[in-house]
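Exercise 7. Predict the structure of RadC-like JAB domain-containing protein from Leeuwenhoekiella polynyae.
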Amino acid sequence: METRINEIRVSYRPKLKAEHWPKISSSSLAAQVVFENWDQNTIAVYESFKILLLNNSNKVKGIYQISHGGITGTLVDLRLLFAVALKSLSVALILVHNHPSGTLRPSEADKNLTRKIKSAADFLDIKILDHLILIPTGEYYSFADEGIL
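Solution. The predicted structure, encoded as tokens:
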């Protein structure tokens, strides 16, 4: 009797050539890139959590939305986050989420999640360069700039 199983295929298909990928050299540039690519119809409505996927030259391979939630929070499944990071062969990430309320202060939950993600990333040899909080005006808070990453 023949045993049949499903085939698992892992792929990443970039649409832009690497020479067109923006290079991230500061938190302000990262915030600008993400804000310009955020749905402006939802940034003031509910929280979303996204990751900037970077290559070894800190060029943006892409942005991926990990989750979207309610007015005051969103859940992040680390398995999904790292599945995307590994599938895209990214060597560094910038974590980003929005606060629809306009508050730029990170909550304790934000800080705890950042520590948890960073710990897992260290194990996988993926760098977490920053965690940004965006508000609807485009202003941002940088964990790295504030020295709490």
